[in-house]
UniProtKB/TrEMBL annotation:
CDD domains: fer2
GO CC terms in record: plasma membrane
Keywords: 2Fe-2S, 4Fe-4S, Iron, Iron-sulfur, Metal-binding, Oxidoreductase
Matches recorded under InterPro entries: 2Fe-2S_ferredoxin-like_sf, 2Fe-2S_ferredoxin-type, 2Fe2S_fd_BS, 4Fe4S_Fe-S-bd, Beta-grasp_dom_sf, Helical_ferredxn, SDH/FRD_Iron-Sulfur, Succ_DH/fum_Rdtase_Fe-S
Organism: Nocardia neocaledoniensis
2Fe-2S ferredoxin-type domain boundaries: 5-92
Pathway, per record: Carbohydrate metabolism; tricarboxylic acid cycle
Record's protein name: Succinate dehydrogenase subunit B
Molecular function terms, GO-annotated: 2 iron, 2 sulfur cluster binding; 4 iron, 4 sulfur cluster binding; electron transfer activity; metal ion binding; oxidoreductase activity
BP GO annotations: respiratory electron transport chain; tricarboxylic acid cycle
One Pfam family from the record: Fer2_3
Cofactor(s) required for function per UniProt: [3Fe-4S] cluster; [4Fe-4S] cluster; [2Fe-2S] cluster
UniProt family annotation: Belongs to the succinate dehydrogenase/fumarate reductase iron-sulfur protein family.
SUPFAM superfamilies in alphabetical order: 2Fe-2S ferredoxin-like (SSF54292), alpha-helical ferredoxin (SSF46548)
């Protein structure tokens, strides 16, 4: 059975804006993105929202619903009561383009800074068999749909614009971890992770893991193991001596 819901949607652009109130029909089984589309169709034809697959796989419709970073297409209206006011705002960490659409190019810049996969020279295709445990580790990280909800949530950049230069964010530290733990990657990424990607800024609050729509254990499986590797390199006296002797 349908009902009228009260929505507050942020409208505006880089110069400013505010919340606008709407009353809009909700049908059984709908998600927040359906309601935003109904608003566009009936009351706010110029309301900007980025979306694509409506199936939780493209990572486009990231926004904040009642202050919580979420995919609009995966947020069921049935999670709210009929008398609740539902507030939809753009991701806070990135610059506004218009309404619910933000400029996420920060993330692409960070992606470009990571040195690419570096297999051993001359390795023939099929000459190496990966262990299942190594395959599964990469596969978990590769479930990432680049919705950037983790990047948006992490307090290191969410509340500190000035940290953006020095911190790659959980999504890209996870990429560094994936490559660092890949059995065929020959690059040593530990110094890069610490000095250039800002791994030390992460104080393992796990907010990134909590908002991941793919349920990737970003903190436990990527960030903490990466930190352990960095610490091993820096503080283990035997590793330290080995590094000195063999320059690695
Ligand atoms: Fe940020 Fe995740 Fe670390 S939210 S502080 S990158 S555990």
């Amino acid at each position: 059975m349908g009902y009228d819901a009260r929505f507050r949607v942020w409208r505006g652009d880089i110069d400013g804006g505010g919340l606008e109130d709407f009353t809009v029909l909700v049908n059984e089984g709908e998600v927040v993105l359906d309601i935003i589309h109904r608003l566009q169709a009936t009351q706010a034809p110029d309301l900007a929202v980025r979306w694509n697959c409506k199936a939780g796989k493209c990572g486009s419709c990231s926004a904040e619903v009642n202050g919580r970073p979420r995919l609009l297409c995966m947020t069921r209206m049935s999670t709210f009561t009929a008398d609740e006011v539902i507030t939809v705002t753009p991701m806070r960490t990135f610059p506004i383009i218009k309404d619910l659409v933000t400029d996420v190019s920060f993330n692409y810049e960070k992606a470009r800074e990571i040195p690419s996969f570096t297999p051993p020279a001359g390795l023939e295709p099929g000459a190496y068999r990966m262990k299942q445990v190594d395959v599964e580790r990469s596969q978990e990280f590769r479930k990432c749909i680049e919705c950037f909800l983790c990047q948006n949530t992490c307090h290191v950049v969410r509340d500190h614009e000035d940290n953006k230069q020095a911190f790659a964010g959980p999504r890209y530290l996870m990429r560094v971890a994936e490559l660092e733990m890949h059995p065929l990657d020959t690059a040593d990424r530990r110094e890069m992770a610490q000095e250039e990607a800002g791994l030390s800024y992460c104080n393992i609050t796990k907010c990134c893991t909590e908002v991941c729509p793919e349920h990737i254990k970003i903190t436990d499986n990527a960030l903490i193991p990466l930190k352990e590797r960095v610490v091993d390199r820096k503080y283990d006296p035997i590793v330290w001596l080995g590094n000195k002797l063999f320059r690695r």
